[in-house]
Design a protein that fits this description.
Radius of gyration: 17 Å
CATH class: Alpha Beta
Order of helices and strands: EHEHEHEHHEHHEHHEHEH
Number of helices: 11
CATH superfamily: Aldolase class I
Distance between the termini: 13 Å
Largest sheet: 8 strands, parallel, barrel
CATH architecture: Alpha-Beta Barrel
Structural class: alpha/beta
Number of domains: 1
Strand order of the largest sheet: 1-2-3-4-5-6-7-8
Helix content: 40-55%
Amino acid sequence: MRIPLIAGNWKMNTTVFEAVKLVNDMKSRLDAVTKVEKLVCPPFISLSKISEILKGTSIRLGAQNCHFMEKGAYTGEVSPVMLAGICEYVILGHSERRQYFGDTNEVVNKKIKAAISAGLKPILCVGESLQENEAGKTGEVVTNQMRGSLSGIEFNPGLVIAYEPVWAIGTGKAATGKQANETIGLVRRTLAGLYGEKAAVEVRILYGGSVTAANTTEFLSQPEIDGALVGGASLKPDEFISIAKQTAAL
């Protein structure tokens, strides 16, 4: 049985003060939600402070990115070794990283290897653009991203995949539950081809892209979807807690 995972990607939002307030506003209520793994991913500057606040709770902590080198002359970057011991997860290959910062499949592949080596659990994001979706290339794009990003990497039980159609991220235009389930089914079949059926069944695959409290049940009631990577709604305590509670109730 795969334990559902509800992850909040705060993106480039919140000062340290705002991040502390946000966590404190939802900590006790979110901690009380059982049968679901809860994860928050604030900006780098707040990770250390938030890790102290979350000690002793069931709420996990993750980073939004990392470099693929342990150290060196890479001004402005944060290595997985720096994150180890502070957080448990790291989001890699997010469409915004791919679109704005040149994170190709090859770069994401190196980041995943480095993250695993440092003891972090990677959340690999895959997803197609609106143009690719309308051209019927969803399967081709997602499969290529999966194979390229995981090339040469042995199966890691901590691996999480997040399917995020680019056209649904931050647009308010979510895929339907059926659409998301079909693509996530393809993701799982691709995993089976890479690592075997047993591994594919074990991996949690999330849906991301304009997830809200209003559409959570539509997605999480689908058989292939094991949770959600939540963007804007994760910055609203009541909304994020509702998403976690609805997931637990399914």
